[in-house]
Amino acid sequence: MNNPVELAKDGESPVDTPESTRASVAVDAEQAAGARAALTALRAEVAKTVVGQDSVVTGLVIALLCRGHVLLEGVPGTAKTLMIRTLSQALDLDFKRVQFTPDLMPGDVTGSLIYDNRTAEFEFREGPVFTNLLLADEINRTPPKTQASLLEAMEERQVSVEGTGRPLPDPFVVCATQNPIEYEGTYPLPEAQLDRFLLKLTVPVPSRDDEISMLQRHAAGFDPRDLSEVTAVAGAAELAAGRAAVRGVHLDPKVAAYVVDICRATRQSPSLQLGVSPRGATALLATSRAWAWLSGRDYVTPDDVKALARPTLRHRTQLRPEAELEGATADGVLEGILAHVPAPR
Ligand SMILES: Nc1ncnc2c1ncn2[C@@H]1O[C@H](COP(=O)(O)OP(=O)(O)OP(=O)(O)O)[C@@H](O)[C@H]1O
Ligand SMILES: [Mg+2]
How far is CA 303 from its chain centroid? Predict the structure, then answer.
């Protein structure tokens, strides 16, 4: 059984929007339905190039709706790059990719001041963060200073150079990849930084059938460099309408309590040395709400919370070394918690 969003931060959650602003951003029902249809069509559009991986694409759409960033974990060659490139084209968004290496400098990411000989002045040359969808490949291969420059841009949605803040485009979503196998020569992201990612999505190796149909496409002449068949089925307008509609999704106090109970249970779990922070709880609410809306509802159900709990919380917990040695995983612990915490009816 496939979880519809066996997917994968947060920041400003749409949670705490005061009633007054809620009214001013309200979209009419027709606009909202159109946005939902367009954003749902994205999945089919991405499927033109990437076989399977629907749940990862859904996770990316949820991140875009929540203005959150994503950690993508998967072994090499599982179409992570192809998926983000296709998604940016299907959304008519600007896309850039940065390969993080040990010698990458902060300015290589954010941009730097360049001296112009002709004008005898310094000019700012924008770095690759000035884009809508940034694929930050192998973020754990670069030293903390360069990681920090990206994380700062993610959090503040601007780059400050010599005291001047330069706003990043909107949307601005970072998809950072980490290779789960190699740890040598890497600088793992500190726990406090992981909490800044809305979702952690695992990109699985395709099923046998999916892999066969991928080969058949290749045999029929599919060229992953050529994305001319991918059309823009949605864009920034649909994302904005979607976000406004998500803010209108109703939250029953019992469901809010359920989110909190799940997060509290992680803090008490004997297998975890670090449980989910209150920021993590707001993230789970935000992603569950976005998923409820994408599924065509204007209220959040406990099942929405369950569907998003693992991708939203898995990177916000830390296993005890003993539990890790015994083979425990964050997903396994979360699964146990979801099985035990009573869901409201
Ligand atoms: N699910 C899939 N559907 C279609 N093609 C796939 C799929 N998985 C892998 N491929 C093929 O494998 C190639 C490699 O994919 P890609 O470069 O996007 O992987 P990646 O996950 O970004 O790898 P790396 O971690 O090395 O950067 C793609 O160009 C595509 O041809
Ligand atoms: Mg890649």
Answer: 20
